[in-house]
Write the structure tokens for this entry.
Amino acid sequence: MRVDDSGLQVLSRAECLELLSSAEIGRIVFTDHALPAVQPVNFCLRDGHIVIRTNPGSKLAAATRHAVVAFEADDFDTLARTGWSVTAVGRARAVQDEAERARLAELPLRPWAPGDRSHYIVIRIEQVSGRRIIAAHESATPA
């Protein structure tokens, strides 16, 4: 197990992808009017790509066309003070092909927000990194 300077476990690409596949909610980071924007989304992982459904006319749909975006998902247990965080970076693309759209519609990706969510965004993960907070061992107290 590799640990970074701050005592967090460094996750491998495979571990990061496994954790991403277990999460339902993440945050996409994109540029909106030359400023950074963050939006929570539900998503799923398919063949190592992040898939998001959104409204075809949404700000997210427009802003992510052929853009480099970041994506983050995490899970924490506040009582145990454990958890993980994974960040991915890649190029987003709008799905235009009807056959691909039909395949994506078969995914277990059901929108949480109301309205038309027929637009698919696929993020090809180019970089991924993750860290895990492992349970702290109680230090021995001097006698």
Observations:
- The two ends are 31 Å apart (CA to CA).
- Strands lie at 9-10, 25-32, 35-46, 49-54, 68-77, 82-94, 119-133.
- Helices lie at 13-22, 59-63, 98-105.
- The longest helix spans residues 13-22.
